[in-house]
Amino acid sequence: xxxxxxxVIELIAGLITFLAVFAALAKVLLxxxxxxxxxxEEATTxxxxxxxxxxxxxxxxxxxxQAELTAARHEASQIRQAALEEGTALLAAVxxxxxxxxxxxxAAATVQLEADRVIAEAELREGVLALAAELAGRILGEPLxxxxxxxxVADEFFTAAEADLQS
Length: 167
Prior knowledge:
Elements: H1 8-140, H2 147-166
């Protein structure tokens, strides 16, 4: 017996055992394997479809976020522009108010200076009149008692002096 001349009974027994195992595998094990492979395929395909759906949803959310971000940037730009315009208007109003206050102060100061000048001029005229009367009294050797006449002469002199200055 050898490999070239096998024992027929053992060969038949081996062949029957092989066919029994093959039939058991074909009837029982292969359908289970097919079923498990189908379930895995279905799970993989379902996961891919869910992943695709999640990706589409993520893209929609991202697009909405981008649109919202763009709108927020636009709104911020408008707010900045409005604030700039409001600030410019406020600055112009404050400048105008300051200019008006300055002009009012200059006008009040001018009026005050003119009033002070008139008062000083009147006081100086009186002082000059008193000094002139005293000097004239010293020159004449007797005091001048007619102050109204001296005042008239001094007013005439000052009027003539002002007329000379203006021409």
